[in-house]
Amino acid sequence: SSRVVEIQSQMSERAVELLGLPEDRPCLLLDVGCGSGLSGDYISEEGHYWIGMDISPAMLDVAVEREVEGDLLLADVGHGIPFRPGMFDGCISISAVQWLCNADKKSHSPPKRLYRFFSTLYTALARGARAVLQLYPENSEQLELITAQAMRAGFTGGMVVDYPNSAKAKKFFLCLFVGTSGTLPKGLGTECASEELHQAKFTNERTRFRNVKGKSVKKSRDWILEKKERRRRQGKEVRADTKYTGRKRRPRF
């Protein structure tokens, strides 16, 4: 549903923000459990490149049909990340890693699969890179299991929780550092008193994210021009800008 799509996009945006990527150059990111490529769309929009892994052929078919800009790989991340050392500048994952806690086959051991995933991910990331994994843990044991295997594999970092006081908006992001222990970013909605939190709930999160960072509001003329400029830099064919670019259409009855 469109609501799910919207939440997915918001979480992708937040995950990329937590990666703290350099602004002056395009990066190569890994998207674990990329599904139909929704997070990938946001990564491309920000001017970066990506490779997506997913275990579902059906979801990847949708991504191909949608003509996403990233490369796609059908694989089970519980078997490890099959890329050469130091290849990625960052990794994001939206609502996927908790599945590694389930033993779907008799031979599956969740701690082993998690360790295999994290240790090979650690190797595939450049030094100083981050991995930001948004997940839906079933309980605190799952959170501890996942975090423990990540630390065993060499990562530092920990859990960033957005809107911890809200049953609905609460989100878990496992924020991991390679080689350098950065300071863990603050969760959204953690610093406000309950009254402010109440107001914050009703603002449009989407635009709030953007404008705080001084970026153009989505779908505005500036935003469209910036996107077209990025595409040109990537050597893609883009229509010329005109005075009509980004102009609102009149409603038709």
UniProtKB/TrEMBL annotation:
Task: Please give the chief subcellular localization of this protein.
Answer: cytoplasm
Domain named Methyltransferase type: which ranges? 30-106
Q: Can you cite a GO biological process for this protein?
A: rRNA (guanine-N7)-methylation
Give the UniProt keywords, A-Z: Cytoplasm, Methyltransferase, Nucleus, S-adenosyl-L-methionine, Transferase
Entry keyword annotation includes Ligase: no
Q: Which residues form a coiled coil?
A: none
InterPro entries membership:
Bud23-like, Bud23_C, Methyltransf_11, SAM-dependent_MTases_sf
> Which superkingdom is the protein from?
Eukaryota
* Record field: compositional bias (Basic and acidic residues): 235-244
Q: Which reaction does it catalyse?
A: a guanosine in 18S rRNA + S-adenosyl-L-methionine = an N(7)-methylguanosine in 18S rRNA + S-adenosyl-L-homocysteine
Biological function:
S-adenosyl-L-methionine-dependent methyltransferase that specifically methylates the N(7) position of a guanine in 18S rRNA. Requires the methyltransferase adapter protein TRM112 for full rRNA methyltransferase activity. Involved in the pre-rRNA processing steps leading to small-subunit rRNA production independently of its RNA-modifying catalytic activity. Important for biogenesis end export of the 40S ribosomal subunit independent on its methyltransferase activity. Locus-specific steroid receptor coactivator.
Family statement: Belongs to the class I-like SAM-binding methyltransferase superfamily. BUD23/WBSCR22 family.
Question: What name does the UniProt record give this protein?
Answer: 18S rRNA (guanine-N(7))-methyltransferase
Q: Which organism is it from?
A: Chaetops frenatus
- Lineage start: Eukaryota, Metazoa, Chordata, Craniata, Vertebrata
Tell me the gene name: Bud23
